[in-house]
Amino acid sequence: MRVRMPADIEREDKLLANLSARQLLIIGIPGLGLWALWSALGDAVPLPVLGALAVPLMGAAVAAALIQRDGLSLDRLLVAAVRFHRAPKRRATTAPSSAEVPSWISADPGPLPAPLELPVSAIGDDGVIDLGEHGAALVLDCSTVNVGLRTEEERAALVSGFASYLNSLAAPVQILVRAESVRLDPLIAALDAAAPTLPHPALEQAARAHADFLNDLAASHTLLYRRVLLVVREPAAHGRQAAATLKRRADDAARALAGAGSTATVLDGPRAVAVLAAAADPTRTGGVAPEDLAAPDAVITGPETEQQEEG
Question: Which segments cross the bilayer (predicted)?
Answer without folding.
Answer: 21-41, 47-67
